[in-house]
């Protein structure tokens, strides 16, 4: 199975904090509106069947459901999914959460989704190219697939590891491994090999003075890749 058990354990230990906006997951809550609006603007969530790969505690899944999408959220983190399901009782969000790998779901339900999202996950798995292939297989012809991850270069190490984890304490130390970061050219290559056309890429920046995130054209650290099948 395409999973790193150490990564699963790392997030399992924090699972109870997924919806605490002042916890280690604060950055995910703060960037979620940016990701949500970008997806909605370019794919139109209302009435679409959407798959959120590596959904964790359901932050993006719930917000896409609130925009009118029929959302399925999948993850291999059992504790995170339990938190996601519990939060549904408070929010009344309608999301179908499943404990299943994206590769297994691709065999079970190919070409079933209008939109597939895979956010902040590729840098945590042993074989990210396999995830990209499975996401492509799950997408209907003409459907959109959105990936977000971290570039691999000295600047990304400085900002995403040293800065975020050791200086600003935005993330727990050890959240990321630099060797697993992915260059946009690598991700674009995997996407094209899987039958996806790359439409656009956007960077995601953080201003430590204003403590705000924003989308920009600088993909040197965090970035989103938009593709179509």
UniProtKB/TrEMBL annotation:
Give the residues the record marks as binding S-adenosyl-L-methionine. Answer: 35, 54, 75, 119
- Pathway participation: Cofactor biosynthesis; ubiquinone biosynthesis
Q: Which GO terms describe its biological process?
A: methylation
Query: What keywords are annotated for this sequence in UniProt?
Result: Methyltransferase, S-adenosyl-L-methionine, Transferase, Ubiquinone, Ubiquinone biosynthesis
| SUPFAM superfamilies, sorted | S-adenosyl-L-methionine-dependent methyltransferases
Q: Which InterPro entries match?
A: SAM-dependent_MTases_sf, UbiG_MeTrfase
Q: Which CDD domains does the record associate with it?
A: AdoMet_MTases (cd02440)
The EC number(s) this enzyme carries: 2.1.1.222, 2.1.1.64
* Enzyme category, top tier: transferase
What GO annotations for molecular function exist for this entry? Answer: 2-polyprenyl-6-hydroxyphenol methylase activity; 3-demethylubiquinol 3-O-methyltransferase activity; polyprenyldihydroxybenzoate methyltransferase activity
The reactions it catalyses are: a 3-(all-trans-polyprenyl)benzene-1,2-diol + S-adenosyl-L-methionine = a 2-methoxy-6-(all-trans-polyprenyl)phenol + S-adenosyl-L-homocysteine + H(+); a 3-demethylubiquinol + S-adenosyl-L-methionine = a ubiquinol + S-adenosyl-L-homocysteine + H(+)
Q: Does the keyword Phosphoprotein apply?
A: no
Please give the function described in this protein's UniProt entry. Answer: O-methyltransferase that catalyzes the 2 O-methylation steps in the ubiquinone biosynthetic pathway.
PANTHER family per the record? METHYLTRANSFERASE, UBIQUINONE BIOSYNTHESIS O-METHYLTRANSFERASE, MITOCHONDRIAL
Q: Which family does it belong to?
A: Belongs to the methyltransferase superfamily. UbiG/COQ3 family.
**Name of the protein described by the UniProt record:** Ubiquinone biosynthesis O-methyltransferase
Give the species this sequence originates from: Methylobacillus flagellatus (strain ATCC 51484 / DSM 6875 / VKM B-1610 / KT)
| Gene designation per UniProt | ubiG
């Amino acid at each position: 199975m395409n999973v790193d058990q150490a990564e699963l354990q790392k997030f399992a230990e924090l699972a109870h904090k997924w919806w605490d906006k002042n916890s280690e997951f604060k950055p995910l809550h703060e960037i979620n509106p940016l990701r949500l609006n970008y997806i909605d603007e370019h794919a139109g969530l209302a009435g679409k069947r959407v798959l959120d790969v590596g959904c964790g505690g359901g932050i993006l899944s719930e917000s896409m459901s609130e925009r009118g999408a029929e959302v399925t959220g999948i993850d291999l983190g059992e504790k995170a999914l339990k938190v996601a399901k519990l939060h549904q009782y408070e929010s009344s969000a309608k999301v179908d959460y499943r404990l299943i790998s994206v590769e297994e779901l691709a065999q079970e339900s190919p070409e079933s989704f209008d939109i597939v999202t895979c956010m902040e996950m590729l840098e945590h798995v042993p074989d990210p190219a396999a995830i990209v292939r499975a996401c492509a297989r799950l997408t209907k012809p003409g459907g959109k697939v959105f990936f977000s991850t971290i570039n691999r270069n000295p600047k990304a190490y400085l900002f995403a590891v040293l800065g975020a984890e050791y200086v600003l304490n935005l993330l727990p130390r050890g959240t990321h491994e630099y060797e697993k970061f992915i260059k946009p050219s690598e991700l674009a290559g995997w996407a094209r090999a899987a039958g996806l056309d790359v439409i656009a890429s956007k960077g995601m920046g953080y201003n430590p003075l204003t403590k705000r995130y924003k989308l920009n054209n600088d993909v040197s650290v965090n970035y989103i890749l938009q593709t179509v099948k």
